[in-house]
Design brief:
The protein is an alpha/beta fold. The chain is built from 26 helices and 15 strands. The chain has 4 domains: 4-116 and 548-641, P-loop containing nucleotide triphosphate hydrolases (Rossmann fold), CATH 3.40.50; 196-249 and 333-455; 256-319, no CATH class; 653-797, no CATH class. Keywords: Coiled coil.
Length: 798
């Protein structure tokens, strides 16, 4: 409810108004003001605090620009509970649902002075009595309820997404400070939900984060890849045939059988432990025989027997044996020993490389699926060392023949070489794996974001028990919205058929007593869309300016206002109505009908404001509202309680006399303000007094007009028959001149409205004092009893 208008600053005739010592507004409020007092400006102030739906922001700006007198212009309205409505308005100001009927409403919605133009009602949320409309409306409301329920469900899902995003955004920022995880605001589709479980996705995420950390030190990674490249795991190869050959061969096979036998016989004599002592003879025998050949007596170096006769045969027989063959044979043995030693070293290198490989595996274990194959080389090394020992022994006893059994070694080598092959493949795989980790951190971060997104979607899918339900609801909502659109279009077409604007306005016109014409709405036109059909004529007319009288236009405009408000208002208890002079140019019967309709229509609304200058209208409507009503006077840019001299709404006559008397008695007269209303009051008071005194309703020279002051002076007052008396400065000798002077001064400057009198400043202060006093004295001169009773009335009010 609006309690009061707290302040009006520099708005129209309200220069600096502040609400003080005036009772607050009640449910029903009647504001009387003469023409030009500021009623329309006050009604427009209500337009500034209504909702945008009722009066657009652009119109408010335009209206305020026209109303304000300076940039300091402003209003402040008190709505109770320390709530204020202002214009210019504050942010998020909760304006009230106010409907205002005044000249602005008429020009905006009905008739702008040249063209008639009904604006369509806003009936989208209004239940109408038409059965078809009611049926359609019920269907729409049922589907709107469905949409509300669907909106709750979809909103809950969207809130869940927002919360999950928030949670994982916090987690994301732990790894990427000052960065935000960006995930679409829309609920994912079914095919966007990953197949992996949340745990699997989290494992991938953990690995990717480690990979991201790894990518920050690319140099170290590249160095380790290089180390991987240098690790070799060679297979062990043993030339079994070659080893057995050297072990089975001997130098003695090269000598002749006799030499072999002799040597063999000799060897049998020698102890086994002395074979190593004899073996050097194989190597140096040739040199020995050469030296013996130079001697004349050729004795055997072993037995000292004379071998002169057999020396040549011995030399010939031993020649092959004592040639280079022995050295070649020994070289072959050494070659096999070297090969065995190389394999033994390979094993040592393999063990060393495995240690390096395992350290790298530990370092990058997060990125490696399995550990390197384990193996043991102890048994293999033992077997190889045994073979080496046999070859070394062969060198000491070259004629000893033996054959090694390699079956155990074959089994061990097969396993070992298979492991070496696996390790070589493992190293290559690992190298490729680590090479693939040499990526830009930004690239890996992008992958991490995608995994987070997958986790968010998977988590949401779990919370929603399947996102397909959300999309199913969205599909149903979309379908329902389209069904509502179809129903609304059906409703629009039905409304067009009903032409609700014309129908409702016609009903109110009849209640106002206007039944000699009907109206219709031209749906195909935006200008002059009001069609008028008089009962006495067959022709339909659309130009209101040439068709309807001013009273009929007023009735039509007010009927439209009543129709619009009752159609568009769904909650009257929260709606405020402001009505500014709805009875312009109406006769007395229609004024009464208007008062009755206002009461019937708006008595249950939240608050009602009626502004008028018409006493007959206020006289009719005021008694209809029995409780919660207040009366106010708008005058000279001020709002005050209504004086008792006006509260019966019979006539402003007593109020005007009171105003004249107050001016006369004032110690500090405001002549500038008085010039705006006193000449008019003085003329109207005297005309009203003489009309009753002489019972004259019309002018003698024009029967259609009420008599003016000049008519009484010239036509109705018989000054010669007046009693001889005097009242103050008035007597029967000068009363006619006094009246003529008042007529001359007031008649020229008292017609029209107050706004036209703003610049009436050439009546002197002395003249204003004089005609004010003379006015009251003349009334006392003609009717002392009447004057006495008026004084008593004014004294009672005080």
């Amino acid at each position: 409810m609006i309690k009061n208008i707290e302040q009006i600053e520099k708005i129209s005739c309200f220069d600096s108004f502040v609400w003080t010592d005036i009772p607050d507004f009640t449910k029903y409020n009647f504001l009387f003001g003469f023409n030009g007092s500021g009623k329309t400006s006050l009604s427009n102030i209500f337009n500034l605090i209504t909702t945008k739906t009722n009066f657009s922001e652009d119109k408010k700006k335009e209206l305020f620009q026209d109303l304000k007198n300076s940039d300091a212009g402003k209003i402040r309205v008190n709505t109770g509970n320390n709530q204020k409505l202002t214009y210019p308005s504050t942010d998020n100001q909760n304006n009230r649902n106010v409907f205002v009927f005044n000249s602005n409403f008429i020009s905006d919605h009905v008739y702008d002075g040249t063209k008639g133009n009904f604006k369509k009602f806003n009936v989208s949320s209004t239940e109408l009595n038409d059965p078809d409309i009611k049926k359609i409306t019920d269907k729409i409301e049922a589907k709107e309820e469905t949409i509300k329920e669907l909106n709750k469900k979809t909103k809950k899902a969207e809130d869940e997404l927002a919360q999950v995003k928030k949670d994982y955004n916090s987690d994301f920022r732990k790894n990427f400070a000052n960065k935000t995880l960006s995930v679409d605001k829309t609920i994912p589709t079914v095919d966007q939900i990953p197949n992996d479980s949340i745990e699997q996705l989290k494992q991938k995420l953990t690995l990717k984060i480690k990979e991201h950390n790894l990518s920050k030190n690319q140099k170290s990674l590249e160095e380790d890849v290089q180390r991987f490249s240098q690790l070799k795991f060679s297979e062990i190869k043993i030339l079994q045939v070659d080893i057995n050959k050297v072990l089975q061969d001997s130098v003695s096979k090269i000598a002749t059988d006799s030499l072999t036998q002799k040597i063999s016989d000799f060897q049998e004599i020698v102890e086994e432990d002395d074979i190593r002592k004899v073996e050097p003879w194989y190597k140096f025998g040739n040199e020995l025989f050469k030296k013996i050949s130079q001697n004349q007596n050729k004795n055997c170096p072993l037995c000292d027997s004379n071998i002169s006769e057999s020396f040549n045969d011995l030399v010939k027989s031993f020649s092959a044996y004592f040639d280079k063959e022995y050295e070649v044979f020994i070289d072959k043995i050494d070659e096999q020993i070297t090969l065995i030693e190389a394999q033994i070293n390979t094993i040592k290198e393999t063990n060393s490389n495995y240690e390096k490989l395992f350290k790298l595996y530990i370092k990058y274990t997060d990125f490696i699926n399995h550990s390197p194959s384990e193996f043991s080389t102890g048994e293999l090394e033992t077997l190889l060392n045994e073979i080496k020992e046999e070859l070394i022994n062969k060198k000491s006893n070259s004629n000893k023949q033996q054959k090694l059994d390699f079956s155990e070694l074959d089994d061990i080598l097969k396993v070992h070489n298979q492991v070496m092959e696996e390790l070589s493949a493992y190293v290559e795989s690992l190298k490729e794996n680590l090479l693939s980790r040499i990526k830009s951190p930004n690239t890996i971060e992008s992958s991490i974001r995608n995994i987070y997104k997958s986790i968010v979607y998977k988590n949401l899918d779990t919370k929603l028990n399947g996102v397909e339900k959300y999309h199913s609801n969205c599909g149903l909502k979309k379908k329902t919205v389209k069904e509502i659109e179809v129903l609304q279009e059906e409703k629009v077409q039905r409304l067009k058929g009903l032409k609700i604007e014309a129908k409702k306005v016609g009903e109110f016109l009849k209640r106002l007593g206007i039944n000699h014409f009907t109206i219709d709405l031209n749906e195909e036109s935006e200008e002059d869309n009001i069609l008028v059909k008089y009962k006495s004529q067959s022709q339909i007319k659309s130009r209101l300016r040439n068709t309807l009288s001013e009273g009929e236009k007023t009735a039509l405009a007010f009927s439209y206002f009543l129709s619009k408000v009752t159609i568009e208002t769904k909650n009257p208890s929260q709606t405020i109505i402001v009505i500014d002079d709805p009875i312009s140019s109406l006769d007395d019967n229609r004024i009464y009908n208007t008062a009755s309709i206002i009461y019937d229509t708006f008595c249950d609304y939240k608050q009602l404001f009626i502004l008028s200058h018409n006493f007959f209208f206020l006289k009719y409507i005021f008694p209809l509202f029995r409780k919660e009503k207040s009366c106010y006077l708008i005058s000279n840019g001020n709002i005050d309680s209504l004086p008792k001299s006006l509260q019966n709404f019979q006539t402003p006559y007593y109020y005007m006399i009171e105003s004249i008397s107050s001016f006369i008695d004032a110690n500090d007269k405001n002549y500038d303000e008085a010039r705006k209303f006193l000449p008019n009051y003085i003329r109207r008071v005297l005309e009203t007094f003489f009309s009753f005194k002489y019972a004259k309703l019309t002018r003698a020279r024009n029967g259609s007009q009420s008599p003016g002051l000049d008519d009484f002076i010239k036509d109705y007052i018989d000054f010669s028959s007046l009693p001889i008396m005097s009242v103050d400065s008035i007597n029967n000798e000068n009363i006619k001149d006094k009246l003529q002077m008042i007529s001359n001064v007031c008649d020229n400057f008292s017609h029209g409205n107050m706004q036209q009198l703003e610049n009436t400043n050439f009546i002197t202060n002395q003249s204003l004092d004089s005609i004010s006093k003379d006015c009251l004295s003349i009334i006392e001169f003609f009717d002392g009893i009447h004057f006495k009773m008026i004084n008593e009335l004014n004294n009672t009010e005080e």
